[in-house]
Design goal:
alpha/beta; 6-stranded parallel β-sheet
Amino acid sequence: MSTPLYAPIDLQRLPRHVAIIMDGNGRWAQQHKLKIALGHRAGTEALRDIIRNSSDLGIGALTLYAFSTENWTRSLAEVEALMQLILDFFHSEIDELHEKNVRITILGDKDGLPEKQRDALMEAERRTLANTGLRLNIAINYGSRAELARAARLLAQDVQNGLLQPGEITEERLSQRLYTAGLPDVDLLIRTSGEMRLSNFLLWQCSYAEFVFPTVLWPDFDLKQYHACIAEFQSRKRRFGRRPTDDE
């Protein structure tokens, strides 16, 4: 691996699945006396290094919260800027991501997006479907409660069609109806800017995740910060509800 390590990371104990809430673009723009759209664009620049490095490190899955179902309530100018950034990102990055064997999956309701954005996302998924490297999941028009309600509807439809009995509904079957079906649960959840909440993101998948809340705003989140978060994750003792043993 050509990228240096900026923290004492054990490459044999990496999180299988990292999720990031990329928070602080608006505050970063305010601090720099810029329009909020430029804050989001600066955040996209930070994102490129994190994706490349996740692939280089050998992390299995990286899930990014790009646009929530609640973000539609923001100003028209900000929503339009975010929608344009989605197009710009996929048009500029898809060739390199495909070359690096990254598989892209979109989490969320693609049908609720404008046609150009929906087509770009579906093409990225189609083009990278057979790739076997980093699983890059981008949550767009996503809300975890909506995802869980959708999974419940799909299970109810199976029951109605006689494919499933109510007593056969298990956690595993529900997981298989989520957008993240086939992926491991989140091991490490990072939210930048110092805010300490999930904001309707991967509520099911983060059941036993380790949370790290760096105070840096997302456009300033670099590889040093990222590696520090991974090192912090590796310092934790994960018990998954079990009692600690005597030697802990």
